Amino acid sequence: MTGTPRACAQHEPALAGVQAIARAYASADASAAFQAIDDYARLSLAHTLCTVNRFDARAMRVVRLYSSNPQAYPPGGSKDKTGTAWGRHVLLAQQVFVGEGESAIREFFNDHDAIRDLGLQSVINVPVVYGGDCLGTVNFLMPRPALSDADVHAARLAGLLALPAFQALRPEQ
Fold first, then answer.
1. How far apart are CA 34 and CA 158, in angstroms?
2. Fewest beta carbons within 10 Å, which of 54, 127, 137, 140?
3. pLDDT, tens digit, for every residue of 122-167?
4. Alpha-carbon distance 153 to 127, whole Å?
5. Per residue, what are the HEC states of 149-165?
6. CA dist., res. 2 & res. 116, Å (int)
């Protein structure tokens, strides 16, 4: 028996994506893990923007750790989510947010003009939760206005794949 399983051609990109995520975790490189998760999720979601945010519950603020478009959404940027419906839904109730169409983007995001200017029309925000605490979010924005259940499931999986990176970046308690 050989040490490497053979994959059929249609599964090779997904397998390569999983291997890239595994390499990033083996190297204890959270940034590389976020990049690899973005690349892996793109196979299913065909998103054009992925961001990853850490949640500071005391300040009710998210801080960007990763962006697939650092010119438009640079790492280190932050947003206050105090008193927002989105913050209550995603960060406090720890529920996935699905926004479809320009009106949903406009209603829930202050930066809706920047999102529209990038040609993005839908979003899936996945809270990354461990032990009852929301550690942050993994966010996918797509150029299409409608999303499927399969899109939401793929985004949820990406959020789960990001958990070890969030754990590694978690401040000492």
1. 9
2. 54
3. 999 999 999 999 999 999 999 999 999 999 999 999 999 999 999 9
4. 13
5. HHHHHHHHHHHHHHHHH
6. 50
Query: Rounded to the nearest 10 degrees, how much is the dihedral formed by the CA atoms of 149, 160, 5, 151?
Result: 20
**Helix (H/G/I), strand (E/B), else coil: 77:** coil
Is residue 35 left, alpha or beta, with left meaning phi > 0 and alpha meaning psi from -120 to 50?
alpha
Tell me whether strands 61-67 and 78-80 are parallel, antiparallel or unpaired.
antiparallel
Residue type, 112: H
Which ranges constitute the DSSP H helices of 30-134?
Answer: 30-45, 85-86, 102-108, 112-117
Contacts of 66 (CB under 8 A, 6+ apart): 31, 34, 35, 38, 50, 51, 52, 75
Ramachandran area for residue 144 (φ above 0: left; ψ -120 to 50: alpha; else beta): beta
Q: Indicate the pTM of the whole model.
A: 0.91
